[in-house]
Each structure stands twice: as structure tokens, then as C-alpha cells.
Design a protein that fits this description.
Elements (H helix, E strand, L loop, with lengths): L20 E6 L1 H12 L3 E4 L8 H12 L10 E3 L2 E3 L12 H19 L4 E6 L3 E5 L4 E3 L10 E5 L2 H18 L5 E6 L9 H19 L5 E4 L1 H8 L15 H15 L2 H17 L9 H18 L8
Parallel strand pairs: 1-2, 1-5, 5-9, 9-10
Antiparallel strand pairs: 3-4, 6-7, 6-8
Helix pairs in contact: 2-4, 4-5, 8-9
Length: 316
């Protein structure tokens, strides 16, 4: 008997190898994936503009990275005693404009260099909603908790969604490696503040736009992350206490599904050993002078050295 609907990720012909670079951008689920790559010691860069959710703003971020744009003070606004970029997450806010700009421009430069060596890009859309900053008639990535009166909220049109996704693909194919794999996902995190019905409509618009945009395009794929959580893991025990975000079990399940489809055998072994090393390193003792504990650390360090020999990039 079957007691659940299992959702699989199509096996990729091109595999992620231990020296590959993986770039991720989008909602907080993109960050969850990035953290898994980082724990496995795979070269990964995530969200150089901070967490952003809609295809228009993600495309804007990719374009600024592609152009190696240098933000100036006139690109910021001063609000609540902070200098703010409406293209960025609030983590870039600062009381001093030069600090905001330094952080913003450093990330853009780093991302531009990283993308030129990237073989896999994971893009996670969270919503079809977007906010317009009325004083400047500007579509924004984040409202930075400014008063609601300054914004108008609306759905991106189907044409805007399609246009944003197509432009993103074009920018990435031009700046990344020739055979870059562009993987689109829809975040399983439900935006319940928009309303349950509105959230479902928002996700549906994203899924439709992705499938229409990538149809017939080489090396562009859809990962059914949203469907795995909604159908395969259809139970609140796979959510955090807020009943919105997937918990660690769900993230691990999706990560394993992804790895089975995209990791080479060598990468699977490499990541598995690195995860075991990290678990061992997290082991604490009350007596760090104990000879047995010192022997334990020596063995761990030997395993780290063996892993370091396998790659050119810095690990641990």
C-alpha cells in the first residue's frame, strides 16, 4: 500500500563536481540550500543583495551584478536615520551612507567574479507580489518597514514575470560558464500574511511563468521543491513552529533528493565525509586536555587534511 505521494527530482545529466561553483539567489529557501552546500565544503555564494522574493527584483539584482554596477549615494534614501537601498534587503541598512555603499559594492564585485566561474545557478522565487515606492515610482525588493502609505502593492503581470525570467536567463548565460545549469524553484514557504488564497495564486503564477519561460531553453530546469513539501511531505510535522517554514527534517529530505539527482558519486562521498567531520568538530568536552580527546582531535585533523588534498579551493 502507498501512504503518500512521492515527488522526485529528475536526474541531471550534468553533475555537480567537488570543484564546481554554485550560485543561489532568492527567498530564504535559497539560503537553506546555500548553507547545505557550505557545510559540504562546496564553493557557494548566496544572495549578494540579501533575501529577495520576486522575479522582477531578482532579475534587477542579476543585472546589476552583470553590469558590475557601483552604487552611489543618490541610489540610497535616508529613512529612520538609516541609509537604505530599496534594491536590497534591510541587512544592508546603515546610519552611514559610505558603510551601506561599501557593503553593497563589495558584494556586487564578489558576485560578478563568482558568477564568471559558476556552473550551477539556483533561483528560488517566493512571491509574484511586488511593491512600488510611490515617491520615486520605483518597483522595490524590500520595503524596509517604511510606512505603508509610501507603497502600492500589486501582482506582477504575466508579461512582467516572463520578461524578468527571460532576461535573468540571458544575463546568466552570458556571464557564467558556457554550459551553466540554471535551476528554478518556487519556495515552499507560504506567505500567509498575503492571505492563503492570495498566496496560492501568487505561487501558481510563478510556476506557470517558470515553465513557460524555460520551455525549449537548453540547460534550464524546474526543481519541484514546492511540490515536494506540499504533496510528498504533506504534514505539519515537517514545518517549524510558525507552520510556515519547512523544518530541518524537510530541508534535509529535499537536500537529499536534490543530491541524488545532481551530485556525482565523488561529490556525494566528499560532502558526506565533510558533514561527518563537522559533526565531530561540534563535539565538546569538559576536559580538552584529556589525552583521549587530543587523540580524537588529531584523527579529525588527519581527515581534514585528506579532504583538503581533494580540492584546490580552501575548505575548513
Amino acid at each position: 500500500m502507498k501512504f503518500r505521494t512521492e515527488v522526485d527530482i529528475n536526474v541531471s545529466e550534468k553533475k555537480i563536481e567537488i570543484e564546481d561553483c554554485v550560485f543561489s539567489i532568492g527567498s530564504c529557501f535559497a539560503t537553506e540550500m546555500h548553507e547545505k552546500f557550505s557545510e559540504g565544503q562546496i564553493q557557494s555564494l548566496n544572495n549578494p543583495f540579501g533575501t529577495i522574493f520576486n522575479p522582477y527584483s531578482i532579475n534587477n539584482a542579476i543585472q546589476q551584478i552583470y553590469d558590475a554596477k557601483e552604487y552611489q549615494e543618490n541610489d540610497l534614501i535616508l529613512a529612520n536615520e538609516n541609509y537604505i537601498s530599496l534594491d536590497h534587503h534591510s541587512s544592508f541598512d546603515s546610519r552611514f551612507s559610505h558603510k551601506s555603499l561599501e557593503n553593497i559594492n563589495k558584494n556586487i564585485e564578489e558576485a560578478n567574479q563568482f558568477l564568471q566561474n559558476t556552473g550551477f545557478v539556483i533561483i528560488t522565487f517566493g512571491t509574484s507580489y511586488i511593491y512600488e515606492f510611490l515617491p520615486k515610482n520605483k518597483l522595490v525588493a524590500n520595503c524596509h518597514k517604511l510606512p505603508q502609505k509610501f507603497f502600492a502593492k500589486r501582482f506582477l503581470s504575466h508579461q512582467e514575470l516572463i520578461g524578468s525570467i527571460n532576461k535573468t536567463i540571458d544575463f546568466l548565460k552570458d556571464i557564467c560558464k558556457n554550459d551553466v545549469q540554471i535551476l528554478f524553484t518556487v519556495s515552499p514557504v507560504r506567505h500567509t500574511k498575503d492571505g492563503i488564497i492570495e498566496n496560492q495564486l501568487s505561487k501558481s503564477k510563478l510556476i506557470t511563468a517558470i515553465h513557460e519561460s524555460i520551455l525549449g531553453k537548453e540547460n534550464c530546469h524546474y526543481l519541484p521543491v514546492y511540490e515536494i513539501l506540499m504533496d510528498d511531505l504533506r504534514d505539519y510535522r515537517f514545518y517549524k513552529d510558525d507552520l510556515i517554514h519547512p523544518n530541518s527534517q524537510a530541508v534535509q529530505y529535499i537536500w537529499e533528493k536534490f543530491g541524488n539527482a545532481y551530485f556525482s558519486d565523488e561529490t556525494k562521498v566528499f560532502i558526506n565525509e565533510n558533514n561527518k567531520i563537522i559533526t565531530a568538530l561540534n563535539h565538546k568536552t569538559e576536559d580538552d586536555k584529556n589525552p583521549k580527546y587530543q587523540e580524537f582531535l588529531d584523527k579529525i585533523n588527519q581527515r581534514i587534511v585528506e579532504q583538503q588534498k581533494k580540492v584546490k579551493h580552501k575548505i575548513f
